[in-house]
Design brief:
1017 residues, alpha/beta, seven-stranded parallel sheet
């Protein structure tokens, strides 16, 4: 018999056998009915520590200290997890008697991984605010370090990820995750994804190794890769990072990059790590530095970069990761610090090594080599963005000053062939590469779409210009006039004309009113200007537009009075320098400088922070050179280039847009006003000169894709996908057939749940179609569609939107509209023509049941289900599904009442199906039931039970009004603040319930679950 469509249980049995038979884990069994499941199984941990030779008093004290950190109520889950990791990583300091020295109890044997006790348990029931049951929990020495959720092949792996995320919420079982290091989700169809505590769904990662091995399920393959005993211990020890409030695990390229670098370090060999822009080089630096310092007691590390903002970023990343770093002010100070034993970790700017007064550079180098600087320890020099140090010869200065140091270069850009020889001389060969195409394929960075835009310019009146020029230059001789014409006739000055710049501003404004992400305020943009003068001109123009107060200019300029002392011409007109000075003076007049910062620096920090955190309030940054490297803003979606750029600088600039930022950001968009890129067939190569192809692996070329061509491919693919998704719907493929396929049979309560994967796929496919259409909707014919195609696609889009709407209403599911607002707003604003205003219903925001209660069932059907009126069965099933959905949601908070409502609903459905009642009678009965379900109480409920909590107690205590009121009062009199999820505080409430429920502990637990579901308590 075929195993296609097999249950989750089959997968789980196979995975358990994998851990047991192939990886040597003990199987602790099924813990679904086991009492007291916890993240620190003291019996198992005690047995392991005794085996390691620790005394009973040491073990008791160590477990007590571990428990204290695990369950600290005054910290967040992140805080508890960080504290627990510290004890796992470095051991528990234990003092068993006064006067005796403190000893360290190591909970995990890091040096000999095989000597730890690895085990798994399945169906581990967690008793918290809400009971949950992870499929598989991984234990090391009795400490829960991994949780695995499995799904069958027909269910999206995202369900397993979301299940893990909800389990970490305070209202569920956050307490259990304070020891957890790995969070896995997997299925036979989609393989495995991994994250850690607090990892958002979009950042869950895929492992990739031995890709040619296709002998088994990817789920099994990568569980073996990541959870083998040695690898699991290594990942926990060397690759866990707490970074500014987020816990992080390595991406696979970071892991193998660091492993390759470790081999070089052991051999004291330098080299280059080439990991594409946006793929996380800073994390590689931090983890490699930590490993070197920990494994080599004599090691010193100096991190060198060439820009002040990168220097600050490096300092911040290390500090937030808990690694103190000394930021030096000059090359001289760096060498001075390296001449002492501490600090071990430093950073500095590369140009601090330069000498401006050197005429004979070669002689200067020889002088340095003859008298190298004295350094203490084994020095490792990390050079960030190492490609930029090649042409300025500064690398030679560093090599001459520190001849015994090991130099490791980091770059995010492909090296040009002309740089290769110099690079290899300085650093050695490539240590590890992770190129742009690999990052895009792995979903680590976004692909880039390119569009060249030409701003037409022409002379309005050549005769008038000549007359004006002669009048303004009548006191100049012919030579002077000729020189002036040459200067102001250059392309740079023509392109900086005010009329052209105004066109660029209008063009960008147009994008912000129409383009997805820009029009919905979730994304923003950077404009690169050719000079500080042009940047200021652009800024002034934007301030006079809809961008007023939502635009900033960030350049290297800092206004000083000396800049303009010689700029006065006496004709009341600003020179370029004076215009820049006046612009900045006006800009900074209300800025108060922060301590240790200038007004300009304070303003720049404010603009950058707002750009990253509040894209709706900082739509555009106008820059020249700053922020084009080392500035990560996931919200940045468009880069407008109005500056001649090339090579590394160009590549780094366009990569400002390739950071991930939610499902609605599919690409980074590059708009080029200078036609910088050389077209190669249908793709556009970043470089005009040859790239270095000597590194192994994929091609180093970075291809920018034509926006319209890619947009058409994307729209065609999403349309084909949704058509195939709806293919199994039975003829005649009307509303009822779609409801049956996507919702199932409403008579069976579990049917709606079973059809959830189909509905989720439909919703996701519809959103993908909307986004693909929205991106090129106003350019369909330029993209290659005929007028007939355009008409057909619009009809198909309308059809599938209606299908989604019918299914959503029939299933009673209210979508989180935030995910779709941007796309729908774009379609509405752009393509829907407005008619004269007409009165609309005051009930637009009400759910269907609430509408039935407020207006009566007839009006509710007219208001919400008008499109289904010709199909009575479709109307009936839609109402029934909404009632059923409300019952399911309410069941936890009032089981008895909603169970009765469910029975009544089943009776009405059965009567309708059997045609035992007329349609009008059916509508009356279903409307009456809808009112009871929406109200959450029957008409006979005593008036004293005037809150949901009191009514829930009454309904679930055999309608004992007196007892319900007594329990309500007891709860309110005894409940401590923040009692949910706090075992001791929960017990206080349970103790108050016990005498009122005749000492029946089982009854107390039953009623307590209902109490926890009531928000009023």
């Amino acid at each position: 018999m075929s195993d296609i469509g097999k249950s989750e249980r089959v997968t789980q049995n196979r995975v358990i056998a994998l851990f047991r038979d192939e990886m040597g884990y003990s199987n602790l069994g099924d813990w679904s009915d086991r009492e007291g499941n916890t993240n620190v199984e003291e019996g198992l941990l005690t047995a392991h520590l005794k085996k390691c030779g620790y005394t009973s008093s040491q073990i008791s004290r160590a477990i007590h200290l571990l428990r204290t950190e695990v369950n600290n109520p005054g910290r967040s889950l992140y805080g508890n997890n960080k504290a627990v990791y510290s004890l796992l990583r470095y051991g528990v300091p234990v003092k068993t008697e006064a006067g005796k020295p403190t000893e360290t109890v190591h909970l995990i044997n890091w040096e000999e991984p095989q000597k730890n006790d690895f085990a798994i348990a399945e169906e581990v029931t967690l008793k918290g605010n809400w009971e949950r049951r992870p499929d598989i929990v991984l234990y090391v020495n009795g400490i829960a370090i991994g949780v695995l959720e499995l799904k069958n092949s027909r269910t999206t792996i995202g369900d397993g990820i979301r299940q893990n995320l909800s389990n970490q919420r305070p209202e569920f079982n956050a307490w259990f995750f304070s020891t957890v290091q790995f969070v896995f989700a997997g299925s036979d169809s989609e393989g495995m994804r991994y994250g850690t505590v607090g990892t958002e769904e979009k950042y869950f990662l895929k492992w990739k190794e031995d890709e040619q091995d296709n002998t088994r399920y990817k789920l099994d393959k990568y569980l073996l890769k990541m959870c083998s005993k040695d690898r699991l211990i290594e990942l926990m020890h060397d690759f866990v990072l707490f970074d500014g409030g987020w816990k992080k695990l390595p991406r696979v390229h970071q892991y193998f990059g660091i492993k390759a670098a470790q081999r070089h370090v052991r051999e004291r060999k330098g080299g280059i790590i080439w990991h594409t822009q946006g793929s996380g080089k800073s994390i590689v630096m931090v983890l490699l530095a930590k490993w070197i310092l920990e494994n080599n007691p004599h090691a010193r590390i100096a991190i060198i970069t060439d820009r002040d903002e990168l220097d600050k970023q490096i300092e911040r990343v290390f500090m937030e990761a808990g690694e103190p770093i000394k930021r030096t002010s000059s090359g001289r100070e760096l060498i001075s610090q390296l001449g002492q034993a501490t600090p071990r970790l430093l950073c500095s700017l590369v140009h601090k090594f330069g000498r401006k007064d050197v005429d004979d550079f070669d002689a200067f180098i020889k002088e340095l080599e003859a008298q190298p600087s004295q350094t203490v320890g084994e020095v490792f020099v990390f050079v960030d963005e190492c490609h930029r140090t090649q042409t300025g010869k500064l690398h030679q200065v560093m090599k001459a000053m520190m001849p015994n140091a090991v130099f490791i270069g980091f770059t995010g850009t492909p090296l040009l062939k002309k740089d290769k020889k110099t690079s290899l001389e300085v650093f050695g060969g490539y240590i590890h590469t992770y190129k742009f195409s690999e990052g895009v394929e792995d979903g680590v960075v976004l692909d880039l779409l390119y569009e060249a835009r030409d701003i037409d310019q022409r002379l309005g009146s050549g005769f008038r210009i000549d007359m004006l020029f002669d009048a303004k230059t009548k006191f100049l001789n012919d030579w002077q006039k000729d020189e002036l014409k040459k200067h102001w006739g250059t392309m740079e000055h023509v392109l900086s004309s005010k009329s052209r710049m105004a066109r660029v501003v209008d063009d960008i404004e147009y994008d912000f009113s129409l383009k997805p992400r820009l029009s919905d305020h979730r994304g923003n943009a950077i404009l690169v200007a050719s000079s500080i003068y042009e940047a200021c001109k652009y800024f002034k123009l934007f301030q006079a537009s809809s961008f007023k107060d939502k635009c900033a200019v960030v350049t290297s300029y800092n206004p000083l009075v000396k800049d303009v002392t010689k700029e006065e011409t006496g004709d009341n007109k600003d020179t370029d320098k004076k215009f820049v000075f006046n612009t900045y003076t006006e800009l900074l007049k209300d800025v108060e400088a922060k301590p240790g910062m200038t007004k300009t620096e304070t303003y720049e920090e404010w603009a950058k922070e707002l750009f990253i955190k509040e894209p709706a309030n900082m739509k555009l940054l106008v820059v020249v050179d700053k922020l084009l490297t080392g500035f990560d803003a996931p919200s940045c979606t468009y880069l407008y280039i109005d500056k001649s750029m090339q090579d590394h600088g160009l590549f780094q600039a366009i990569c400002r847009t390739n950071r991930l930022d939610g499902e609605d950001k599919s690409f980074g968009y590059i708009v080029d006003y200078k036609d910088l890129f050389k077209k190669v067939e249908n793709a556009i190569a970043v470089y005009t000169s040859e790239l270095d192809h000597s590194a192994e692996g994929v091609s180093p070329e970075v291809l920018l894709h034509d926006r319209l061509k890619t947009g058409k491919e994307r729209l065609d693919a999403t349309l084909e996908s949704i058509i195939l998704l709806c293919e199994p719907v039975k003829p005649p493929k009307g509303e009822l057939e779609h409801i049956h396929y996507f919702c199932g049979n409403t008579e069976i309560a579990s049917d709606l749940k079973e059809h959830e994967p189909q509905r989720a796929a439909l919703y996701k496919a519809t959103v993908a179609l909307i986004r693909a259409y929205a991106n090129i909707a106003d350019e369909m014919e330029p993209a290659g569609y005929t007028p007939v195609d355009v008409s057909r696609i619009k009809q198909q889009l309308d059809h599938f939107l209606k299908v989604r709407d019918v299914v959503r209403k029939a299933s009673g599911e209210e979508l989180d509209l935030k995910a779709y607002e941007a796309d729908m707003r774009h379609l509405i604003d752009t393509y829907i023509e407005a008619d004269m205003p007409r009165p609309i219903s005051p009930f637009d925001n009400m759910g269907l049941l609430e509408l039935i209660v407020k207006t009566g069932i007839a009006k509710a059907i007219n208001e919400r289900l008008a499109g289904m009126k010709g199909n009575k069965n479709a109307v009936a099933e839609t109402i029934e599904n909404n009632v059923r959905s409300k019952i399911i949601k309410g069941h936890l908070s009032d089981p008895d009442y909603y169970e009765k409502m469910s029975e009544l609903l089943d009776e009405i459905i059965a009567a309708r199906k059997a045609k035992a009642i007329e349609y009008e009678e059916y509508l009356k009965r279903i409307a009456a039931l809808a009112k009871q379900v929406e109200a959450g109480q029957s008409e006979e409920t005593p008036k004293t039970l005037d809150t949901p909590g009191r009514r829930a107690l009454y309904n679930n205590l055999n309608q004992n009004e007196e007892l319900a009121l007594k329990l309500d009062q007891a709860i309110k009199d005894t409940r401590p603040d923040g009692w949910r999820g706090h075992l001791a505080k929960e017990n206080i409430i349970k103790a108050a319930l016990l005498p009122l429920l005749d000492g029946d502990k089982a009854e107390v637990e039953r009623i307590f679950l209902i109490i926890k579901a009531q928000s009023e308590y």
